[in-house]
Amino acid sequence: MKNIVTKLKSFPRDTRRDLGNYLIVVAAFLLMQAALGGGLISNSMEGLLVPICAYVVMAISLTLTVGILGELSLGHGGFMSVGAFVGVFFSMATQNSIPSDGMRLFLAFVAGTVAAGVVGLLIGIPVLRLRGDYLAIVTLAFGEIIKNVLNVLYVGVDANGIHVAISDEKALHLAEDGRVIIAGALGISGGRKLATFVIGFVLVLVALFIVQNLVRSRAGRAIMSIRDNRIAAEAMGINVTKYKLMAFSISAALAGAAGVLYGHNYSALQAGKFNYNMSIQVLLFVVLGGMTSLRGAMIAAVVLTVLPEMLRGLEDYRMLIYAIVLIAVMIFNQSPQLIQWRARMAEKLPKFGRKKEKEAK
Amino acid sequence: MDFIKYLITGISLGSVYAIIALGYTMVYGIAKMLNFAHGDVIMVGGYMTFIFMNSLGMPAILAVLGAMVVCTVLGIVIERVAYKPLREASSLAVLITAIGVSYLLQNLALIIWGSTPKSFPSVVSIDPIVLPGGITISGETIVTVVVSALIMIGLTLFINKSKLGHAMQAVAEDKGAAQLMGINVNATISITFAIGSALAAVAGALLCSSYPLLQPTTGAMPGIRAFVAAVFGGIGSIPGAMLGGVLLGIIESLTKAYISTELSDAVVFAMLIVVLLVKPTGLLGKKISEKV
Predict the structure, then answer these.
(1) Where along chain A do its domains lie?
(2) What ipTM is given for this predicted complex?
(3) Cβ within 8 Å of B, A 61-100
(4) Which pTM value belongs to this model?
(5) Is the Cα torsion angle A155, A158, A162, A167 positive or negative in sign?
(6) Could you tell me the domains of chain B?
């Protein structure tokens, strides 16, 4: 035991922090499992467990784009919907050919993640050449385009394969045995709820593993250097477009995976669910978490999903409170004057933490 | 004949976009920020006009003027409270705050006025003109086009001839140098927001007169489309905003008529992406080189 502790202490701080994140996720999972076993969780809260996992993965994904890459994406809801639709479509279309639920869900995850990643890559190629505000507005535009297209998309399967049409069901020309799976604005209905809390938990761990390892790698340092100073990074020979695309498409793929999880938790799925509000809500997780902190974003995602459930009476004011919190946190954390003021206040306070730092030096 | 009808609808819609785009372009030119909440100021302008006309029984002109006053104050308050503390912060921080403000306005409106759409009485009482060939041009169309043309001429004169306009140009060019020349930068930025918000109120009243459904999300999509128009015409340029707005309105109207209603937004956004890739400065914008 003592051995492990000394070994842990010998790790660099970042590594310890990363390991801490896994520990927190595992501990939270075990705690919830124990509470579930003891019957301490209400029904409505139990129904939230899978969406919470999906939101946590979304928070991890957007932290990669906003915090690590330093670009604002307002279209993450769009990537999520691509993942959800492709994933759920896959598992419904192969219902008869792949009998094992687990295998089908796994392949659905692969399909949804890859689809969202590819969409992210395709969108990223033109979009990432833009900077700042333009990029944000274009990602928003793409989110809306994805939603619009999904709203008019009809897809069905029969013995001859997959039929796609935009406009209406009749245009699909399905054979007798065919069935419509995606029905335009009505979306997908009659899906089976394959997602469980355990699967959600595993997905969170995988997403965390991917992003944390990316951040601490050579590629991750390149990405962060682009965020901190693009021109200097370029001068150091870093291929800006390549690394931006890399971070963006990984982030999109993770959002797609979150979508697959989310989609398999409901029997009906409409593109309208993944609207602008969804993208803003995820952005709020990231901002509240401190922009660059994965741990913060995960905690914010959990708290902001659970809190409204507990404060049912405030349902009408939830979005309003979100908006005020978003503005207040932004000003408090980012205003140069306030940052200075906070530094002055911190000096006046009794110095607990800082003594240690001095000794360490 | 149908084509001309759609063209006229497009020009009318485009003129409203142009007025909204002017607000974006001015604020972007001076504060170098994308005022995401601009679209929602339009919505507030619409509601204010509605209240002044319906509940207080004011004549249309006075109602619009009243809405302009309310929106001007709102614009200044938003700038002072939310954007000013972040003036030296990163553009990402300002953008996220602006999104927060937009969200705040929408949800405040939702709580105050509810989500049920209100049917907006037209502010225009001019009779439609019937052209030979059976084409009617509605009073709303005439007023919208005339008002937006007047606004553009007025703004161009204001910016090029008045002292305040020169101050705005100076602040847009270089904030620090403008301050050294004795220009009150904070006041100039506030005035820009005030003008933009007053224009948004006019746009709100005109938009709701042509499309008489008023709800908390009324301003969001037109706001984003108008931003596309501003970028299309070249952000920072007043004639550009006008040109971009009208072109966008025509494209949207023709898309709805000949391609698909559901996909009209997709076409508009796809156009934005193409413009940004081919000519990032827009049709009439000037290129700004990046300083290290």
Answers:
(1) 23-310, 318-361
(2) 0.83
(3) 66, 70, 72, 74
(4) 0.84
(5) negative
(6) 2-278 (1.10.3470)
